[in-house]
Each structure stands twice: as C-alpha cells, then as structure tokens.
Amino acid sequence: MDLAFSPEERAFRDEVREFIATHLPPDVRRRVQAGDPLGKDDYACWHRILHERGWVAPGWPVALGGTDWGPVEKHIFQEEISYGWAPRLLPFGLQMVAPVIIEFGNDEQRARYLPKIHSGEEFWCQGYSEPGAGSDLASLQSSAVHDPSTSSGQAETYVINGTKTWITAAQWADWIFVLARTERSAKKQDGISFILVDMKTPGVTVRPIETIDGGREINEVHLENVRVPVANRVGGEGEGWNIAKFLLEHERTGTAGIAGCRQQLESLHELLAHEKIDDRRLQERVAQVEIELEALAFTELRTLAAESAGKRPGPESSILKIKGTEIQQAISELALDALGPYAEAHVAPKYFNYRKTSIYAGSNEIQKNIIAKRILKLP
Ligand SMILES: Cc1cc2nc3c(=O)[nH]c(=O)nc-3n(C[C@H](O)[C@H](O)[C@H](O)COP(=O)(O)OP(=O)(O)OC[C@H]3O[C@@H](n4cnc5c(N)ncnc54)[C@H](O)[C@@H]3O)c2cc1C
C-alpha cells in the first residue's frame, strides 16, 4: 500500500511507527500479539502514553485536545497501531460518547466529562441493547421517569428502570450512557432520551456474561430505581434517537480492520510454517483471502479519498464492515482448519471469539439491509 501515500504521509507513518516501537510496553505488545485478553491496566497504560503524546483523540476538534490530522493520517495511525501490536483503545468514551457530548451537550457537560475521557481517568461503556432490542433498537423498554418526589430547590431527577445486555467492558466502567424511554408515544423512535449514568449510583448492578470462548468481556447491566439528575441528559428530552443514530455512524467507521487482518494473516503464515503444514487446498484458500483483503484495502482507500475531498462517510461503511468482518472470520477459520484436532489450545478461542464481529456494531444482515435501501435503492 506504500505507493498510495505521498512522501509526507510516509514520513508521518515512520514517525508513528517509531513512536509505537519505542513507547509501547513490551509485555502489552506480547499480549496483543499472542491474542491474549487485555486487562483494564493494559488499556489505561497505553491510553496514558498516547495522551501524553497528544495522540489519544484524533477525531476530536483540536481545541478540545484532538489532532489536526486529515482522514489519511488518521487511517495511517490506526494501521500502525495494528502493525505495531498496540491495543486499540476502547471506543466507548473517546469515539462514542465524546463526539455526542461535543455535538449535542451543553458547556457544563463538555467541561465536566471531556477532560476525564481525554485523560483516561474515567472509563465508559455503551448501554444501548436490551434483551428484546438489538437490531430493532427502537423497541427498547428501559424507562426514565421524572421523580415526582423531588421537592422544590432540589435538583430534578429521573428514575431509571430496565436491563441492558451485551455491554462490553461494563465491569471496568465508571460511567454508562443509556438510551431510555422518557415518554411512551405512538412511534417507537420518539420519546427516547440519551442519559449519562454514574455506575456507582445505587441500583446499578453488573452481571458478567461468559462468551463462547470462555472470555469475560460482556455483561448485563441492571438498572433498578436508579436516580439520575435530569442535568445528565444530553440533548433535549425525547431527542435520543437522533443522537443514537449519530453515534452509530461513528461506531461503524473503521470496523474493516484491514491492518488487523494483515497481522492475522502474518500469524497464520507463521503458524503454517511452524507446524510444517503444506496443504495445497489450504494455500489456495489463504491466497483467495489475501486477494479479497487487497481489494477491500483499495475500497477503503477510495472512501478515504472521498472523505479527504470533504464527503461524510455514508452507507459505504456498511460494505467495509461486512467484508472486513467476513475476512477476519475466514482467517480464524483457516487457522482452525489448519490445526484440526490440535486447534483447541492454540486458535480455537480466537475462532469462537471472532463470531462476534458479524453481530456487533449492527449485524451484517442489518448492514445488507442498509446497502439494499440506501445504495441499491431497492424497495
Ligand atoms: C461481543 C458483543 C459485544 C457487544 N457490545 C455491546 C455494547 O457494548 N453495548 C450495546 O449496547 N450492545 C452491544 N452488543 C449488542 C449488539 O449491538 C447486538 O447484539 C446486535 O445489535 C444484534 O442484536 P441482537 O443480539 O438483539 O440480535 P437480533 O436483533 O435479535 O438478531 C438476531 C438475528 O436476526 C437477524 N436480523 C434481525 N433483524 C433483521 C432484519 N430486519 N433483517 C435481516 N436480519 C435481521 C440479525 O442479523 C441476527 O442474525 C454487543 C454484541 C456482541 C456480540
């Protein structure tokens, strides 16, 4: 992909590469490279290092601690994070709630929340999904009701009740942003509000969900009579659906994970060489995946070029999401097939863990619906 970059962009890439090589703690790099689960401390440590360098929030406005990078520099930075085996910082604070607070919050909210997200002092999680509301998110049932017992002079509060599920990193989070119904109106997209909840508030309970690979990355979050100041609502009451959609656009960009796929392929080649696996059929399948990955990389560069020319990422990000996650899953499947019955200790956990990629950030079937409606204009 080198030829695609200008000399300045290549110089920038070398600077980032050098920084990661010299600043990423070796034990963290080892864990990322081995595919071992990372702890909160690993993320916090890398967050601090990027924060000190001024590179922790490339997507934020410069005045609030962002960088002046264009889309290509941001892309190069993300690629180098993968190539250097550095952790990808959790997106819930920096890339999800922060853009929402910047766009829809008031000055007090910006002053209260953004500096601690930027410094990594406060961890966040995303409370959207519910047991009966995933793809059909607007069916959510959690409620936030004005507390009638609030006496005059006291800050007005909501009382929140409901269950959020599949919540990544809730076990580490200091704050959760939730979508809750503040009004039961005719249209299900109406009457939803976007509310920030301190995880230490009485009535918030986190229950771990064990994933198919034995991991502990997702949770149920129960909210039982949780009293939250009305001032914690971002945007107007009942305007949460618009905010939710704004946030999902941010969530879907960058899910192709091209650099991550390249690293996975490199590990696969090492595995095949180490295990002396010389299977022609398997090699053909590896080559096929490599071809598809290169095609996807060029598709991603085309969307970057459009972004550089001032276009917003549109429904095309659905194509990147589908194809990128299919390739990630295909590589983990190749590793599993290569080792056969010996895969259990080596690659099986990763294979199982990667099933999630076609479900989260809007399932791939939902992305296909978006492509059908918004790109192909099908009825
Ligand atoms: C590892 C992981 C982490 C997650 N982290 C978070 C998190 O931090 N915060 C959060 O809020 N949520 C999180 N989620 C939840 C995720 O957003 C939902 O799982 C996802 O939106 C799918 O919803 P669902 O599980 O209810 O499945 P359903 O919506 O019930 O879908 C079931 C199946 O039906 C298909 N389907 C549904 N509707 C349609 C349709 N209209 N057309 C075609 N096919 C359809 C789906 O594609 C899927 O295959 C996470 C999920 C996973 C797996």
Describe this structure in words.
The longest helix has 29 residues, at 280-308. This protein is globular. The two termini are 38 Å apart. A hairpin with an 8-residue loop joins β6 (204-209) and β7. It folds into three domains: 2-89, Butyryl-Coa Dehydrogenase, subunit A, domain 1, CATH 1.10.540; 124-239, Butyryl-CoA Dehydrogenase, subunit A, domain 2; 253-375, Up-down Bundle (Butyryl-CoA Dehydrogenase, subunit A, domain 3), CATH 1.20.140.10. It is built from 13 helices and eight strands. Strands 1-4-5-8 form a four-stranded mixed β-sheet. By secondary structure, the chain is of the alpha+beta class. Residues 125-129, 134-135, 166-168, 218, 356, 359-360, 363, 365-366, 369 line the site of flavin-adenine dinucleotide (FAD).
The shape, in one word, is globular
Could you give me the name of the CATH homologous superfamily of the largest domain?
Answer: Butyryl-CoA Dehydrogenase, subunit A, domain 3
Which residues form runs of ≥5 with pLDDT under 50? none
Compressed to H and E, one letter per element, the order equals: HHHHHHEEEEEEEEHHHHHHH
* Strand fraction: 5-15%
What is the count of helical runs?
13
Task: Give the class-level CATH name of the largest domain.
Answer: Mainly Alpha
Number of beta-strand segments: 8
